[in-house]
Amino acid sequence: MINAGLHLSLLDRSRIRAGEPEAAALRNSVARAVQAERLGYDRFWVAEHHGVPGIAGAAPAVLLAAVAGATTGIRLGSAGVMLPHHQPLVVAEQFAMLSAFAPGRVDLGLGRSPGFTAPVRRALRQGDSDFAADLAELRGYLTGTGEVTVHPHPDGAVPLHVLATGSGLRIAAEFGLPVVVGGPILGVGGDPAPGLAALEGYRRGFRPSAQQPEPRVAISLDVLIADTAAEAADLALPEAWAMAQARTQGDFPPLEPVAAIRGATRTARQQQYLDQTAAAAIAGTPAQVEGRLAELLDRTGAAELVAAGSTFDRAALAASDASLAAMFGRS
Question: 182: which strand partners?
Answer without folding.
Answer: 220
